[in-house]
Amino acid sequence: MEKRSGVKVMRTEIAVLAGPRRWGDTRESWLSRVPRTVKEALKTRTETVSFRMVKGLWYGEINDPEHHAARDVRRAAGIIAARNEALALAEKYRALIGGLNATDPNFYREDIARLERVARMLCGEGRPE
Fold it and tell me: What is the largest CA-CA distance in the chain?
């Protein structure tokens, strides 16, 4: 039972990296996006995870949690998930900014400026001051 739950967790992480399946995707074409996504997320020069390793993780052929491919997939999935959460939070802040602007932009001027700065930082557009 423990082995199946490990495969399920790995599949969830791979799905985060592969992104949504498009209507024309096969499972192989969908999984083939993962090595490039891992490379970009970890900012490495070469792909540390091959397509064959991703397939092995997906189908449970590689079940060692300390295998380098499993570690890299977990780390990259965490980075992508955190980035997605930050973008979602930035969108909530931008909606809040719109509400404050609609209510009274002069009264909430400082709060609006602060929220805009935080939203830009969450999107990676600005630096903390």
Answer: 61
From the number of C-beta atoms within 10 Å of its C-beta (0-12, 13-18, 19+), residue 9 rates as: middle
**Structure confidence by residue, pLDDT tens digits, 41-91:** 999 888 889 999 999 999 999 988 899 999 999 999 999 999 999 999 999
Which tokens is 61 given? Answer: 């052929």
DSSP H helices, 19-108, are 27-31, 34-42, 51-58, 68-103
C-beta of residue 90 within 8 angstroms of C-beta of residue 119: yes
Give CA separation, 125 vs 33, 50, 90, 119, 120, in Å. Answer: 26, 31, 11, 9, 5
Residue with tokens 């091959």, as numbered in its chain: 50
**What pTM does this model have?**
0.79
